[in-house]
Automatic annotation (TrEMBL):
Enzyme type, top EC level: oxidoreductase
One Pfam family hit: HgmA_C
Protein name as catalogued: Homogentisate 1,2-dioxygenase
Keyword line: Dioxygenase, Iron, Metal-binding, Oxidoreductase
Lineage: Bacteria, Bacillati, Bacillota, Bacilli, Bacillales
Entry keyword annotation includes Iron: yes
Domain of life of the source: Bacteria
Gene3D superfamilies: Jelly Rolls
Species of provenance: Paenibacillus apiarius
Length: 393
């Protein structure tokens, strides 16, 4: 979300001398996107951000996808994933394509290293738990329902409070921002937007660290996780200003758009990136035409795959999904409400569902690791009499 912010100490004009008390210069870093044509921020460090004392390959970043099988709807019961870890190493990847990777994580411990994604922006949705994200731009505290947007190249560390922070992670090779149709030419959100700038939370405080020692920053880039060791703390920033920084939007602040008859899914859109969108399904009033059918109509994803991550509540068009379920409805075949759900919706006044939807405009593939969580009968759950055994796929 692009609007100007400033934290800490900065000089009056950019690219001019800015000295410490001892007379030495702070190190200016311009951090921008799209080759100096996109949004950017300028940070002032105590040490050069290039002062790496050791560079190594930490691990290959290699996602193994399943072989192509029959085109079918999928249901992954990720609520059964009991693996614990931190917010990055603990990610269990479920789906992906050339534009995005979708993972879940049970962050039960703090990261003992620092991390940055050098390929694109990241979005962390907080299903459960509280804690903080410490970054080079400052600290943000999170709570359930928060979307945490972390720009490319941002060094960060996730520190959960007591208990487990259950996260949905979306890794991209591009940017994440608000829908263009909700912004004027200057980037300001318009009156018909389902949220406004008041709903966004940036870094709350800037803590400048002057510690020296060994600090590991792991960088995801070019199919590998790289390990860069610094002799100084990576959060040595004394001040910054600009339009590029991490920020948070809580799903509870999304104001749903409703109508007399059923509204199409784009009304739920919250974010967009290159070849994907992210939507928020929140508690809302149903359609109020006297003959309206609140449940969605059957529809064909002619050019996009649809993913739903179920957070809580009774999702009005589905049976058999639970908290943490991920469904994938691929392009090429239609999908829609489960049997009985259309009739059940008639006359209802509201829904209390909460879910995150990700639509991609290139086909998604299921990660082999995710198959252990699959409900392989989901494709046949629309049949009046589902087969006794799962047909061969």
């Amino acid at each position: 979300m692009a609007f100007y912010r400033q934290m800490g100490d900065i000089p009056k004009k950019r690219h001019t001398m800015f000295r410490k008390a001892d007379g030495t210069l702070y190190r200016e870093q311009v951090m921008g996107t799209k080759g100096f044509s996109g949004i950017q921020s300028i940070l002032y460090h105590h040490h050069p951000p290039t002062a790496v004392s050791k560079a190594e390959v930490h691990a290959k970043f290699d996602i193994e996808f399943e072989e192509q099988g029959a085109l079918r709807h999928r249901h992954l019961l990720t609520g059964g994933c009991a693996d614990m870890g931190d917010a990055v190493d603990g990610r269990r990847y479920m789906l992906g394509n050339e534009d995005v990777l979708i993972a879940v994580a049970n962050a039960a411990q703090s990261m003992d290293y620092y991390y940055r994604n050098g390929d694109g922006d990241e979005l962390l949705f907080v299903h459960e738990g509280t804690g903080r994200v410490e970054t080079m731009f400052g600290t943000l505290h999170y709570r359930p329902g928060d979307y945490i947007v972390i720009p490319i190249g941002t060094i960060y560390q996730v520190i959960p409070d007591e208990g487990v922070s259950k996260l949905l992670a979306v890794e991209t090779n591009s940017w994440i921002t608000t829908p263009k149709r909700y912004r004027n030419p200057h980037g300001q959100l318009l009156e018909h937007s389902p949220f406004c700038e008041r709903d966004f939370r940036g870094p709350e405080q800037l803590d400048t660290h002057l510690e020296c020692g060994e600090f590991e920053v792991r960088t995801k880039s070019r199919g590998f996780i790289h390990s860069h060791t610094f002799d100084h703390h990576p959060f040595d920033v004394v001040g910054w200003d600009g339009y590029l920084y991490p920020w948070i939007f809580n799903i509870g602040d999304f104001e749903p758009i409703t109508g007399r008859i059923h509204m199409p899914p784009p009304i739920h859109q919250t974010f967009e990136g290159n070849n994907f969108v992210i939507c928020s399904f929140v508690p809302r009033l149903y359609d109020y035409h006297p003959e309206g059918i609140p449940a969605p109509y059957f529809h064909s994803n002619v050019d996009s795959d649809e993913v739903l991550y179920y957070v809580k509540g009774n999702f009005m068009s589905r049976k058999g999904v639970t908290e943490g379920s991920i469904t994938l409805h691929p392009s090429g075949i239609p999908h829609g409400p489960h049997p009985g759900k259309i009739e059940d919706s008639i006359g209802k006044k509201e829904t209390m569902e909460l879910a995150v939807m990700i639509d991609t405009f290139r086909p998604l593939r299921v990660v082999k690791q995710a198959l252990q969580y699959e409900d392989d009968r989901y494709m046949y759950s629309w049949c009046a009499a589902p087969p006794e055994t799962t047909p061969t796929v």
